[in-house]
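A further point concerns the way the authors explain their paired sequence and structure data. Showing the layout once, in full, would remove most of the difficulty. For illustration, here is how one protein appears when written out as sequence plus structure tokens:
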Amino acid sequence: MQGERLKKRNAWYQAVWRWHFYAGLIFAPIFIILAVTGSIYLFEPQLTKMQYRDMMTASFAEEQPIEVQKESFLAEHPEAMITSIRLPGEGESTRIGWMNNDEMMYTYIHPETAEVLGTRTAESSMDLLVLIHGTLLGGQIGNWVVELAASWAIILLITGTFLFWPRGKNPIRMLMPKLGKGRQWWKQMHGSVALWSSLGLVIIISSGLAWSSVSGAMLQWVSSSTNTGTPMYAYAFGAKPESTVTTKDVAEDVPWATQADLVPASSPSSLLPIDLNRVVSEVSIERPYTVSLPQGETGVYTVTSAAGHPFKEATVNLDQYSGETLSSVTYADYGILGKLITVGIAFHEGRLFGLLNQLVGVALCLGLIFVVISSFVMWRKRKVGSIEQMKRFEDERIKRIVGILILLLGVTLPLAGISILVVLVFDWFIGRRKLKAEVAA
């Protein structure tokens, strides 16, 4: 009986090890790319301010009215179509977003003197890094590949924990590796670094999936359908015309939780639209925040927080004619899923607890790089010539458990579920090859 249990446990171990190996072999290069680009982009706020310091920074004791700053901009760019104005925080300049033909531009205004400090394109040197990190420069297909790699990274962390767990020993010991020699040293360090990093990496990876094409869309659908993100017109004021436009379509600096919210429409009237001074007086959001201007005669002023910290997020829509608040949503109004994802995204981007968050993010990225490199070293030191030489699991009960796990992953991580089916076919094909070779011999 004891021997049978041991046999099944070994079969399960072999099954998990094979899946762990497949994932590491296929996605290791992508993990390194994501870790390198992600660790650099954590410092995007500091790097961008360093690059455009003369434009983006400004010391001021008092401010000119926002309409005065707007007029100063229009004096230099009279034909410009303004799309947004970002009101500054301490030590910052006012940012005006506008279209130059089909190109988005940013012009910076000194809040106290209304002097134009400079103009640049909305695209920055960090945009290439974002493209690599999010799509591997491969467009939609690249985004799917990144999402697939992120999904498998979660599988790797789960299976790796199982493989490294000290059976019959004190679990605390797995956090403190025994520094042996050769492959044993690499194995101990590989497991310990992965375990020390696992919780933070799972949070970073899971929150990153919120931007992905498949899982991200599914999360938005779940949050909207269950009102665990932000309900349509959440905490709105009075009846309002119907709209089919979402916040992300008409505004900048939009929080994740309100990106898919339908934007209420202004009621056209004989009145002239209110000016920006009135908009600023109507909102009480902590600076910095962005005011996106109305698009068309039924458009609204959309005010979104750019303060950086998730607990200060806000999205407010104002009627462009009356100045009436049509809807107002803050972090406190989010549902449980919206709050969790918002905090996760802030941690992912290094905004949750300042510089320390950024340093923790870098440490996690370096940990991931070490785990990938050490896995390659272990593989080389193991001296296994081919995949066929890896042990296969034949226990039917184990196969059923693996099948259930595949089903669960297919529901929660769709691309991972599909890819696992592909790997299963590949695994079966290898088994058939091995069996035929044994029969032929």
Notes: The chain has a mean pLDDT of 84. The beta strands are 81-87, 94-100, 103-109, 116-121, 289-292, 300-305, 314-319, 325-330. The first strand starts at residue 81 and ends at 87. The first helix runs from residue 2 to 41.
